[in-house]
Structure formats: structure tokens, C-alpha cells
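Training component of the fellowship. As part of building independent skills, the fellow (R.M.) carried out the full modelling exercise for a liganded target. The chosen ligand was WQD. The inputs are recorded below so that the supervisory panel can assess the work.
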Amino acid sequence: MKILLTGGAGFIGSHTAVELVNEGYEPIIIDDFRNSKSFVIENIEKIIGRKVVFHCTDIGDQEKISSIIKQEKPVGIIHFAADKAVNESVKNPLKYYHNNIVNLIKLLSVIDKHNIDSFIFSSSCTVYGSPSFIPVNEKTPIQPAFSPYGYTKQVGEKILTDFFKTKQQTSLTMLRYFNPIGAHPSSLIGELPLGVPSNLVPYITQTAIGKRKELTIFGNDYNTADGTCIRDYIHVVDLARAHVLSLKNKHSYNNIYNVGVGNGKSVLEVVHSFEEINNLKVNYQFGERRDGDVPEIYADNHLIKTELKWEPIFSLKEALHHAWAWERELKSKYKIG
Ligand code: WQD
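Fellow's submitted model of the complex:
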């Protein structure tokens, strides 16, 4: 069964392509490498041991997307293609409204003319804003978004819910990702931040390898045990597996699932776990709070565990070990770093 992956050469998309093949699906990857590199496709092929179908296309190009859908006839679509940095979205909101909302509408206009069994959307825990109760479950009331990025995910969910109400033959699943980290255990694919990383773990690995002088921890005066923010860090392979299980899910036609491991770790705990598992030291200093950050959030993942039988396999330390192996691979093989 063919599954179209928009943004399939990206961090989560590439790992999902591999997991789809492991479960007998045929991924059809669309990407224009604006946030990735072409060697990712070659390395997906190394992991799966064969060629993968790939189209180098901008997701906003409706004519091309339409002809790819006509040609490939996918039964499902997983829509990864979007921008994802909370802080960048505060500085450049229009980029986020364009890439995350305008392009989503363009994609839906194309698929309006086709029959698709499943549509899976990369949503985010940022839809909860700064929640009054933690852990958050799928019924936790949505608060005003803290960033334009979070707002694009709230609006995206609403657009999809309204659109797919008119298309009862399609099962819609919106996966609210918590913080994806790590890399494939083969060290062939992983996160590829272009320029200065805005996410914590690539910043840690780039500091450890000497590409960055020092990690700045954004704020140590939050109302948490050690004063730093708390997040739910999930291994990217575990997150990828949630997409495959969503395709198999015939539970209902409109599904929302939190995808997180279900416990919160502070920024300092992540830094210290990284140092411990990889036996090295990371230079860090404390800085100002970052715009758009919520103090604390982690998932109640009961729903996805019961309905999709999903369980995380990898620990935080394994994820940090894989992230470090990937960073070293980037430096030695691709001279990135
Ligand atoms: C984590 C923590 C920072 C960098 C991410 C994704 C977003 C979404 C949710 C969906 C925060 C701190 C970071 C640094 C730091 N999920 N930090 N120094 O903002 O939670 O958002 O998860 O896919 O798409 O981007 O993740 O990794 O940027 O930050 O102290 O140099 O690390 O303040 O507390 P965030 P992040």
C-alpha cells in the first residue's frame, strides 16, 4: 500500500519512511530539501536495502502534487512538510502562516479531488499553550497559543477537522508530537538543522562536538524543581512508529493522540543525562528566558497506548546516545560540524 509523505526527507518523515517499509508499506516521498539534504534519501535506501520512490517537489506546487497523486494513487497521506521552530515563528510569523497554513489548504484542495483512506497530520503539543493541568490529555482545553508556530497547529487541526467532516471515507489522525529527539540506531539518518539549531538536543550535540562554543539554557528561574523548563522528549523512531500504527487504526474517523513518553524532564536533566551516557562534558551557561517557551508540559499518553497499542521502546538515554552517534557521523562522513 502506497503512502505519500510530504516532507518525507525531514527528521520525522525520514524515520517514518523506514518504519513504513518495515511494516510492508510503500512510502512515496515528496520533499524539496529546503530543510534537508539529498543524501537522506540515499541513506533511507541503505537502511531498507532498496530504492524508494522520491519526487523533488515544493508542496505548494498544486499541479505537481496533483499529478503525483494521480500517478502514484496513494491510499494514505502523512503531511510532515511544515516549519517547526517555536522561536523562529515569533521572529518570522508570515513564514509560518504561509508554509504551515497556506500550503496545508493548497494540499487539501488537491486531495479534495481524490479518494484517500487515511490522512495523518503532524500536530504538536504546542496546541495546548501553557496548560493549567499537567500532564495534558487530548481533552485538556486548548489555551491561546504561545507562539505563531503553536497557532498554526491549532488552526491546522481546525481546518482538517472541518474539511474531513465532508469526507467520511477518510480517517483523519492528528498526532500531537511532544519533543522528538535522537536518531536512527544505524546512524544513517537523524536531525539535520540547517544553520544554528533552535532545538535543545542538536544544540547540545553541536556544542559537545565543538561546533558551538557553549549551550545557553534559556531561563533557570521557572517554577520547576531546578528552575529550567520541562518537556517530554520522545525518540524519533518511537514517534515514527506512531504514524504506522495510526494508518492501521480503524478506531474512528477523527482521531487525536498525544505522542510523548509521559514524563517530563528538565533542560538540566537532559544535559546531565547526555553527559552521563556519552561520558563527556557540555559547556553551558544560563541565559534569559526565550520568547514563546511554556514553563512545563508533558503528555498523558493513555489514549494512544490503549487505542493504538503504542508503547515507547527507547529511553531518554538511548535517544541521547543515538543523537551523539549521529552528530559524530555528520562530522566524519559529511563534514557537517
Ligand atoms: C526545549 C527546551 C528551551 C535550545 C519543540 C519543537 C516543536 C514542538 C514541541 C512538535 C526549552 C530549551 C532549547 C537551547 C535551551 N513539537 N533550550 N537552549 O521549544 O519545546 O519545541 O517541541 O514537533 O516543533 O520545536 O523544543 O528543543 O527548542 O526546547 O535552553 O539552545 O530546551 O528553552 O525549554 P520546544 P526545543
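The panel noted the following from the submitted structure. The mean pLDDT is 95. The CA atoms of residues 1 and 25 lie 5 Å apart.
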